[in-house]
Design a protein that fits this description.
With 58 residues, the chain is mainly α. The protein is 78% helix and 0% strand. The protein is built from two helices and no strands. The longest helix is centred in the first third of the chain and has 31 residues.
């Protein structure tokens, strides 16, 4: 009984691991290029960004 459960678990986990390793980087690139997650530089965010850039240059 225990051997069959272990064999079944290994048969199920192997494809899940392979799919995760293959799709993980693709999903990470998609999230990185997503427009929704980017911080927009408008208003107070723009003022803070510009002031930090000026401080780092001086």
């Amino acid at each position: 009984m225990t051997a069959s459960v272990t064999a079944l678990a290994s048969c199920l986990l192997r494809p899940v691991l392979i799919a995760t390793l293959m799709l993980g980087p693709v999903m990470a690139i998609g999230i990185a290029h997503s427009q929704e997650l980017r911080a927009e530089k408008r208003g107070a965010g723009l003022v803070l960004f510009v002031s930090l850039q000026r401080q780092s240059m001086s």
